[in-house]
Amino acid sequence: MNHSSREPDARLSIGPYALHSGVELPEVTVAYATYGRLAPDGRNAILATHGYTASHQMLAHGTGVAEGSWAPLIGPGKPLDTDRFFVVCSNILGSSYGTTGPASIDPRSGRPYGYDFPDISFADIVGVQRRLLERLGVRHLRAVVGPSYGGFQALQWAVDHADMVDAIGVIASGPFFARNAYTDLDVLEAQLGADPAWRAGAYPQPAQMQATLHALRTQTLMTYGMDAVLQDQGLDAAARAQRIDAMADGWAREFDPGALVVLLKAGLAFDVRARLAQIRADVLHVIASTDTLFAPSASHTSDLAGVAGALRYVEMQTPYGHTATGPAHALWSDALRQLIDPGR
Known about the structure:
There is one protein chain. The protein is α/β, with parallel strands linked by helices. Helices cover 28% and strands 19% of the residues. It has helices at 122-136, 149-160, 185-193, 210-223, 226-232, 237-254, 257-269, 333-340; strands spanning 7-18, 24-35, 45-48, 86-90, 105-106, 111-112, 141-147, 165-171, 282-288, 311-316. A hairpin with a 5-residue loop joins strand 1 (7-18) and strand 2 (24-35). The relative contact order is 0.15.
């Protein structure tokens, strides 16, 4: 299959998919973007994996992805070198940007799944990605790289499909999801439940919950460092508040509240600490010094120290917190380049 240049928002049906729980989704569609050209042997691919509330557009310019656009990392001569590699970024299972999730129509009922969408795992998310890559003609991955939940996916790839992956980038992420006030499922469900439109998850239209989602997004952007990013761009307090409000508004118009629950459940169940020795891929682990979600360890050493493959740990000194992966890309992009293409 000859895939080249850029498909900014493609869709592909991969048919029915059996989850690890035994539940079968009768039809799964995956939204994705591709950059570069797939080699004839199908072995020059890189999978870029996105975060909890981001999308397959995290590499595209001008998208305003919450975790900071990765657009500076991709292109000819960049770490994600489109002259050499075929880069795929797919929207994850259970999300809100075109891949099958709670807002999708269940073909058996003709209605959105809503809260009836089954629980999924990161093994399911990765399994769907593998099915997509196979359909695109990809036979091997030079690397899987991603921030936050994207780092979880990279790790899941390394333990589930070790023979298919040479290297992984675990960026602003770790081997498990630590519980805190921002990752508490009860808190999230209480916040959603306070909106009468939620109806215990039987919400008729996500748009009816836009005000609640806007408030949640504003809180997240402030907590994870967006104000510091905008301040360094020269914006005063009023302008920063206005920009964050616009970011929250755009996201609230698109994201499905049911996906927040489904993906948080999957994240809270993720833990590969007992399987680190199975990881033979080379590993780049990057942490931001001010990240409140994946904070540096007290010993300033990687939480992935048990991997069997080569490990490089980078601790970015940045005020940008969990949002740092894009805005502070210069602090770790050389390490990414070396991970992906060590011979250059």
